[in-house]
Every structure is written in structure tokens, then in C-alpha cells.
């Protein structure tokens, strides 16, 4: 039986645990590095990213989290968890914060504003519907939410959200060639997938829609199938297939 770890330092870990129970999956709260050894996948929940980073540093979790990401096991970050997984984050508090990294994107920590500017909206998610059934839209709950400003070529965009061009222009790096071809950039990315990593700027665990959790579990199934197919083709210079990840960048 698949066991899903939920990082339980702070934030909405209880809500993720409840969503996992709803679909009949065992969830385990993770607070110490050694607990990662007994789970098949990991959810990093939403919360206050700076506080979560300080607690993770206190418990010496960052090396174990990076190793888990690099192992190929599925990891899903929601809201603050998305910030944790990003290779680069901007808009951080003075002094920055440590990141886990692995997700080839640039995240703006507090793109949508303060707690008072939190909101709910319908998001177009045809790729989610294609894989998990149901409608082509889902409810997105954004609470002091981040947004993804840029992604690498290996990142699949699952959902985006319209914003005013002046707001995006003041925060996103300018690409004049792209603007000349497409007009003003007026959307930010709010859900992505890259290999074993899933990231959402919003909180699916706060809705009744469990399709994001089901999608995440299927990522583990696909990873297991690929591991069986590729087990005999390991690189002799890197027998565990882990490679050497680039360190995350934070500003």
C-alpha cells in the first residue's frame, strides 16, 4: 500500500491528511529526516513559507528533502510548498529563505498580495480532466498565494490565471522578443508538473475536489513502472541514477 508523507511543520497538513483519507490512502505526518525513509511520496503543504523554512532548518530537514526530491519519488508542493520546490524564488522577506529546489521555475513568493487579498476562482484544467475525469475546471483557493513567473522547457503547465499586464510587468523579468510576438504578458502560471514534481499555487486540499491528490498518486505509479523498465540500464558512473542537482537559488 502506498504511503504518502505530509510535511507537518506548519500550515494545512491536516487538510491534506483528510483528503488522503477520503480517497483511501494512508498519510503519515513527517517532522524528522528519518521519517522520509518510510514514505513513497511527499506533500509539502501550504502555510507561511518563511516559518516553515526556519522549522525545517531547525530540524535539519533540508538535506533529506533534497535527497528525497532527487530520488525520483513524487513530491507535491502547494502554495508555500511550491515555493520550497522552486529553483528560484523572488519577493522573499529580507534575508531570503532556504529552498529545497528541483522544480525548474521562478516563483514570486507573495504575488497575489496579503491575507485580505486572498480569493477563490474557477481555473481551467483540461489536462487534469483528461487524466482524472470530471469537469475541465476546478476551484482554486488562493491564500497569500505565490505565482510562477517563468518555467524551463522541461516543465508542463497545468493551469494559469489572468492578471493585469501592469501588475505582471512590475514583477516578471521582461522578454521583449516574447512581448513583440505575443503582445503584453498577462497570465501567470499556477500549476505545473515536471517529472516527479507537482506544484500548485493554490490549495486543492481546501476543496472537495480530490482529483489533484489522485493525479499525484498516479505519478507514483508511473514512476514505479519506469523504474522496473530502466533498472537494467543504470549508468555505471552513477549507479543509483541520482545525478548531482544544481543548488537552488534564492533572493
What is the topological layout?
Blueprint: E1 3-7, H1 13-22, E2 26-30, E3 41-44, H2 49-58, H3 62-70, E4 75-78, H4 80-85, E5 86-90, E6 103-108, E7 119-124, H5 126-132, E8 137-142, E9 147-151, E10 156-162, H6 165-169, H7 176-182, E11 187-194, E12 197-200, H8 211-230, E13 249-250
Summarize the structure in words.
This protein is of the alpha/beta class and 251 residues long. It has a single domain, classed as Class I glutamine amidotransferase (GATase) domain (Rossmann fold, 3-Layer(aba) Sandwich). It has eight helices and 13 strands. The chain has helices at residues 13-22, 49-58, 62-70, 80-85, 126-132, 165-169, 176-182, 211-230; strands at residues 3-7, 26-30, 41-44, 75-78, 86-90, 103-108, 119-124, 137-142, 147-151, 156-162, 187-194, 197-200, 249-250. The strands form three sheets. It has a seven-stranded mixed beta sheet with strand order 2-1-3-4-12-11-10. Helix 5 (126-132) crosses helix 8 (211-230). The chain starts with a strand and ends with a strand.
Give the amount of beta strand, in percent.
25-35%
| Mean pLDDT figure | 83
| Named CATH architecture | 3-Layer(aba) Sandwich
Total strands? 13
Q: What about the largest sheet?
A: 7 strands, mixed
Task: Name the shape in a single word.
Answer: globular
Tally of discrete structural domains: 1
Q: For the CA atoms, what is the radius of gyration?
A: 18 Å
Helix share, percent: 25-40%
